[in-house]
Amino acid sequence: MEVHHHPQLHHKPKPWKEYHMNISKKTINTILRLFIYIIIGFTAAYFYKKLKN
User: What are phi and psi of 38, to 5 degrees?
Assistant: First the structure.
């Protein structure tokens, strides 16, 4: 079996702001999803109680 080697790629280091923006977008996305799921849950519970009565 032959071993495949990647060429040495030299990347410039990312500025800290780029890491911060990436983390912020993921965090905001997660919080938004949780908020939507909670709203959907409360709405479903409301309609379930309304239909049950």
Answer: -65, -45
Question: In Å, what is the CA distance from 3 to each residue of 6, 10, 12?
Answer: 10, 21, 27
Angle at 48 between CA 46 and CA 52, to 5 degrees: 120
Nearest alpha carbon to residue 31 among 16, 15, 50, 39: 39
Q: Is residue 49 part of a domain?
A: yes
User: Residue 44: inside a domain, yes or no?
Assistant: yes
What's residue 13's pLDDT? 77
Q: Name residues of the chain where pLDDT drops below 50.
A: none
Phi-psi region of 29 (alpha: psi -120 to 50; beta: other; left: phi over 0): alpha
What residue numbers bound the domain in which 46 lies?
Answer: 24-53
